[in-house]
Design a protein that fits this description.
By secondary structure, the protein is an alpha+beta fold. The protein has ten helices and 13 strands. It has an eight-stranded antiparallel beta sheet with strand order 2-3-4-5-12-7-10-13. Strands 1-6-11-8-9 form a five-stranded mixed beta sheet, with no helix packed on it. A hairpin with a 5-residue loop joins strand 3 and strand 4. The chain is globular, with a radius of gyration of 21 Å. It comes from Methylomonas subterranea.
Length: 325
């Protein structure tokens, strides 16, 4: 049972054994029916390349606790197809996984919990690769800079390529004869990994390598200002003056270093803060809107719905339902 009524229902991943799937060459993990429709399948597509398909719709706020001991360095590419979940590490680090986004992380050990919102459907595909596998296909040292940290590290988080989403849907709808399904899935997975990691290599060359250190510091200083003053943010002109540049240059370095615009970053900061308020402190929508700088709750609700794919009232209802469990 949860320690208190506001906590998510916690379950250790090791308490739910993996079983051989009856209809595929895969391992299947299914949570008890009392927790909702929650299932994962893991396929080994290639040496050191695994593919995990996750579909969760819990009936209560849920936290899946896991601990992975030190091992060979790995990179995980997560494609969010539907919904929103988050990983909360032991060092208070949080990683959000959203529909339409590709998140690339690296680690050689991890401990924390994957958290899911009650009555909210989540579908994700994860591709797990060792550093040795990556170097075999991309060349020695291709992603060396991504593996410098021992703990879980977010390497990249950006909108998924259209081709990757199409390939992911094809994997889920694979209706070929059983003898051909594994080969088809491997081909689609390789296409997704090549596309998403190829974009990462391009970004590293065009932005990180060529961008002057002074411009990086400028973008990070502006980012920190927005993260602190998101409720009453400065205008683009004011923000530019405070970091010592002009609006055109500021937008340029944001695009190159942060892969977004100042307004796009501000919106993400506000929405993530609002999500935390609505989910963990049970704020009504109007107060959450005010807390993140919106004068009109209707404008906030529309922005929240566009950002997460569901209205804030749905999150409020789920939070209240979870607190009553």
């Amino acid at each position: 049972m949860p320690k208190n009524s506001c906590s998510p229902w916690r379950i250790k991943q090791t308490d739910i054994p993996w079983q051989t799937s009856p209809d595929a060459d895969a391992q299947l993990q299914t949570l008890p029916e009392s927790l909702g429709r929650c299932q994962s399948r893991i396929y080994r597509l290639d040496a050191d390349l695994s593919y995990i398909e996750t579909h969760y719709q819990p009936t209560r706020n849920l936290a899946m606790e896991s601990r992975m001991p030190p091992q060979a360095p790995r990179m995980v590419l997560t494609l969010g197809l539907r919904g929103h979940s988050s990983f909360h590490g032991r060092q208070d680090d949080t990683i959000d996984f959203k529909a339409g986004q590709s998140t690339i992380t690296t680690f050689n050990a991890s401990e924390g919990s994957r958290q899911y919102q009650a009555n909210h459907a989540v579908s994700q595909l994860r591709f797990s690769m060792t550093q040795a596998w990556l170097e075999h296909y991309f060349g020695e040292g291709a992603f060396a800079d991504c593996f410098k940290a021992d703990s879980v590290r977010v390497v990249s988080q950006r909108a998924s390529a259209a081709g990757s989403l199409l390939a992911a849907r094809a994997m889920l709808q694979n209706s070929l004869p059983a003898q051909a399904q594994a080969l088809f899935s491997l081909g689609q997975a390789m296409a997704i990994v090549a596309t998403e990691l190829g974009d990462l290599l391009n970004a590293g060359t065009s932005a990180s390598t060529r961008m002057p250190a002074a411009d990086k510091r400028l973008a990070e200083k502006a980012r920190d200002i927005l993260a602190t003053e998101f409720k009453n943010p400065p205008s683009i002109m004011e923000l530019s003056k405070r970091v010592g540049t002009n609006p055109f240059k500021l937008k340029q370095v944001f695009h190159r270093h942060l892969d977004t615009t100042p307004y796009g970053l501000l919106l993400s900061i506000r929405m993530e803060q609002a999500y935390r308020l609505l989910a963990t402190q049970h704020y009504p929508v109007g107060l959450a809107a005010e807390a993140v700088g919106y004068q009109h709750a209707s404008n906030f609700s529309a922005a929240f719905n566009r950002h997460f794919g569901f209205p804030p009232k749905q999150l409020c209802r789920a939070a209240r339902s979870g607190s009553q469990q």
